[in-house]
Write a structure and sequence with these properties.
Helix content of chain B: 10-25%
Number of helices of chain B: 3
Helix content of chain A: 25-40%
Mean pLDDT of chain A: 92
Structural class of chain B: mainly alpha
CATH topology of the largest domain in chain A: TIM Barrel
Strand order of the largest sheet of chain A: 12-11-10-9-8-7-13-14
Largest sheet of chain B: none
CATH architecture of the largest domain in chain A: Alpha-Beta Barrel
Number of helices of chain A: 15
Low-confidence stretches of chain A: 1-9
Largest sheet of chain A: 8 strands, mixed
CATH class of the largest domain in chain A: Alpha Beta
Order of helices and strands of chain B: EHHH
CATH topology of one domain in chain B: Quinohemoprotein amine dehydrogenase
Strand content of chain B: under 5%
CATH superfamily of one domain in chain B: Quinohemoprotein amine dehydrogenase, gamma subunit structural domain
Mean pLDDT of chain B: 65
Radius of gyration of chain B: 22 Å
Number of strands of chain B: 1
CATH superfamily of the largest domain in chain A: Aldolase class I
Oligomer: heterodimer
Structural class of chain A: alpha/beta
Distance between the termini of chain B: 59 Å
Chain lengths: 492, 123
Amino acid sequence: MNTMTAPAADFRTARYRLGELHEFEAADQPYVYLVGAGAIFALDDGARAVLEELREGEMAHGEIVSALVAHGYANGDAEELIRELLFVRGIVSDRIAPALDPQPTAPPADFPLQALVLNITNQCNLACTYCYEFGADKIATPQGKPKFMTLETAKSSIDFLLTQSGSRETVHVTFFGGETLMNFKLLREVVLYANEAAAAQHRAITYSLTTNATLLSDPIIEFLADNDVGVTVSIDGPADLQDHRRIYRSGKGSYEVIEPRLKKLIARHRTRAITARVTLSEGVTDVLRIYRHLKDELGFHEVGFAPVTNSGDQDYAINGDGMSKVLADFHALADEWLEYALENRMHGFSNVSETIAELMQGVNKSHPCGAGLGLLGVSPSGDLSPCHRFTDADTHTLGNIESGIDAAKREDFLSRGHVSAKYECQSCWARPLCAGGCHHEAFVRYGDTGHANLHYCDWIREWTDTCLRVYGAVAAQNPGFLERFATRKANA
Amino acid sequence: MKHLKPINRKAQRIDDLASPAPETMMDASSDPLGEDDIVALQQKTQQPHVPMGCTLAFSPGWEVDAGGGTAGLCQPVERDIYDCYVSCFWPVQVPDHINYSPDWASNCASAAKDWRNLDLVFP
């Protein structure tokens, strides 16, 4: 019945074409980024010549060998070069059918949790106009639910994290809001409780929090420093930019309140990096000026930027001109990052550092982030969600801290978000890093967490290419520097 | 490898596979890059064109594997619908791209995801 015959073994009759790859050049050295693996290789002249020839179209084995021999290659060497390119799938042969992409499947049921984001309150003392939790594009439905997390719920959450995290030696808790520090009393008790609970199991818990910095006080700063709590501050830049949208309900800006508090925090807190997280929006696109202010004048260790999340027609969304300005400044800072790297100095621009760390590992993501996988959000009521951005949203509840994870809902969320389920991503070379982008952004924009974030594809590709070139330049000129990023994404 | 130099961790792992340390080289030593290796059904043979996913056995009929079941089809079943639609001349119960229903699948870029958009055809 089966009429299959033995395969024709002689690959020398094969025809080749380019595999799925992205070529780039840095410091006069050609490189190739291989999409299937997330691997980066430096090419020699021959390898580059083969890829160049194949850019014109398919070629037979003999044609490539002849072309290489004409370039001065020995016959055997040409054969070896083809074998190497085939092996890494930089080129593909018509004799070998491509393996099918893995289709989305349910994650392992016992996938261990790594981190919980505790939304210890959904209340906020600011009224930032672009807020995803309270603004025009909000998805949260907090009506009738608790506004502040109780100690009981918080303790249950810690127990839940320790139970669900399997054999991980270290787990992480992020405190979030609303404005996190409006419930600092709880935060302090949770840290004390969690330290004891973890120590009893000979494990460790690390902490971080995100805050708008308005409520930082000396005792709070002492506590955060003494307990190694990492601090991320949501801040948009110097006074005129910060006060544009990060305002109190009265309309008053918040810069004046936070500046002295930030200076104290940064002076006192030395145990963990203090990072700034900037939301770029219409009129707040001067990345260079913001970076200089936050890094040089206020002293943040790292500064990261992201365009505001929006459904597409909000007045605070960045328009085309604004985005061009953002990109130009991003490139200027990336150049500066490279200069620092070549002098063995760490630069504080997180957007490059994060990508470099991922490129170094060669990450190849099934999902854009760990939401619903190694990370879950907990609302003040104890409801579980994929991450803090879905807190209190009835549409995305994944169970409750008391009753556990709703396996069916989590599976639905993760199957939608799997990169293989996103049709448009299948032909994109940047998908190993992007995997379609933020689930929450996608839901706000397209009404489906599993939709690729098509509105920023070009931007992601351009940015990934920029970071690849930075990576290539450092690899060629100061490779030892890259080792500093070895552990930053080791578990990614 | 001689012509490709790994510069990240993933590339290093691929390079390690291609150039195994001497003590781990066994039968593979004559074929370090694995070009003669046959993996699953990846090797294509020189044969007349058979639409992908189409069964090679015409009995007992439509859509069975060599054992008469559906578990061992070499392509997911969704693939058939395109191969029949686009390239197959055989008259089956699938709209015909060549003659009668050129736009039938225009709203269905990915069968696995958009199959609900495939509609009935009324000739």
